[in-house]
Structures are given as structure tokens and as C-alpha cells.
Amino acid sequence: MIELYILLLFMIAAAFIAVQIKDLLSSIIAVGAAGLALSVAFLILKAPDLAITQLVVEILCLIILIRATVKRDTASTKDFRGFLTTIVSLVFIGVFLFFAYLALKELPDFGKPIMRVAANFIEMGQAKTGASNLVSSVILDFRAYDTLGEATVLFTAVIGTLAILRRIGRKKKDEVVKEND
Amino acid sequence: MTKNSKGMTLIVKTITRLTVGLILLYGIYIVLHGHLTPGGGFAGGVIIALSFVHLMLAFGKEVALKKVSRPIASLFESIGALMFLSIAVIGFVGGYFFLNFFINKGTPFKLFSAGIMPLCNIAISFKVGAGLFAIFVALVLLKIDSEDKER
Questions:
Q1: What is the pLDDT of residues B62-78, one digit of tens each?
Q2: Domain regions of chain A by residue span
Q3: A125-148 pLDDT tens trace
Q4: What are the Cα distances from residue A131, in Å, to A94, A149, B11, B45, B151?
Q5: Which of chain B's residues have a Cβ under 8 Å away from the Cβ of A163?
Q6: Count of Cβ atoms closer than 10 Å to residue B30 Cβ
Q7: A165 with B74: Cβ contact below 8 A
Q8: Nearest C-alpha of chain B: how many angstroms from A46?
């Protein structure tokens, strides 16, 4: 498990760099490094389905981020950070860590014990559905209703994006719309 | 990225010409084997979308939009959504939502097995691939058009 902790430290470092660095492109590359490390961490935790999905979605997001943000000078960070803000942030982080420690202490070990429904899925999954990939048999047979909802969410997101970003807006016949980017 | 949106240099174009078909084939493989190996409709659909994104980044928007234009992407997305929903509704014939309605589920570890799952994977991959490609086209074309107007 030592490699998992190394990966977690790497991800924390990449996240710090992504927040703190000035250059926008370097920040996006740091985000990509964190995502790649997350994908490898999923592989170490024996979740290859999730690793593949994380990797490809990360690549697509990086491409969109690079195309959308580079060459557009939106980087206007200020170095000013007040004393009170720092104190409030530190107190909030301390409270959060305290309660997170209390909550995470009570969690059972990773993957143990197997719950009743999950045990039924693991035992009967292949016999009931005929699929040898157990993850696929859960998301497309036992819990297919959830997958339908997720697909609906994505469909709504695409429709919303296309509706906002379409080039030709509706306007009256003689109306002149002034475009400011 | 060059100023005119005609794509990148010759090296990038040559490598793209060699690899873009392989990426598309790999996406289709991931979709079709979603019930046997890790992957599935979502990941495979994103890989299929990435192959067209790759084409657009290397060759410019005209080449990629000649292959898949925006109305066609919208059409495929709608087809995927309707296909997934109709698979769900057909299950009512046998009694409940998402009934795995093939009687013979086939032998495990074979390509034609697991009832409705390959069909669901194909539907989801249509939806995800076309939808993400449409989002990318909308975001990138908006930027290119605004740059064209400035010049």
C-alpha cells in the first residue's frame, strides 16, 4: 500500500501547484498530473473500469480547458491576502480535520464486511445476468435505473450547453444585436 | 496552434493520420466488450469522441466537421437516448423496468452473451460520444469564430 500513499502525496502536491502557480497553462498541466495520478490510484485499488473512465474524461477535460482558457488573458490573481482571511481559513481547516478524523475513525476497513445485497450481487451476478464483468452487470442490470438517470443528466447538460453556446440567437427581423465578446 | 485554423504542422498531421483509426477502433472494442472486460459504454463513447476531437485538433475544423457535422452529432445523441429508453420500456412486456428480456443469455465470456447489456452499452456510447463531441464543437467553434471576427 506504500505506492498508494506516494500517489496521494503526489496528488496533493499537484493540487497545490495547480492552485498557486501564476501561469494558466502550467496550472492546467498540474491538474492533468493530479488526474493521471488519480487514475493510477484507481488501478492500484483494483477498479480498472473507473481508471479507464477517469483517464479518458480527464484527457477530454484538459483539451477543452486548454482550448478554452489559453490565449484568453483571464489570469488576474492578486497577491493580497488579509490577516483575518488566513485566520478564518486555518480555523475552518482545523475544525474540518477534527470532525473528519472523528467520522473516518468509525468507518469499517476497506471492502470489509461485505453487505448482504453486495454479497448477493457478487455470488449471483454472473448466473443471473450472464455478464462476466461484474461492474457492468451491476450498472446495466441490477441498478440500470440509476444508469438511465445518469444518462438523462448528461443529455440535459449537452442540451443546455448547446442552447447557451449556439451561434445564431433568435432575434427580430430588423433588430441589430451588438456583439461584445 | 497556428493562427489560421487550418491545423497543425506536417508531423502532427502524419502521426494523426496513422493513429486516429486505431483510437476509433479501440473505442469500438471497449464498447462491444463492455460486458466482458473493464470499460463499457461511457468510457468507450468518450474514446470515440476523442478520436474525432484528435482529428479536429490536427486538421482543423473543416475536416472533422465534414465527417461528423453538428446536426449529425445531435441526431446520434438523440438516437442513443431513445434506444436506451426503449430498451428500458420494452422490459414492461415481461413485467418490470429493464427486464433482461433475452431468454437465452448465452455462454459467459463469449461476445454474444448477457442479454441486453451489449445493446445498452452501444446506446450509451452513441449518447456519450455524440454529446461530448457536440459540446467540444460548440466550445471550440465559438472561440474560433470570435477570433475570426477580430481579424
A1: 777 777 777 788 888 88
A2: 1-73, 108-167
A3: 777 777 777 888 888 777 878 888
A4: 47, 22, 43, 20, 56
A5: none
A6: 25
A7: no
A8: 11
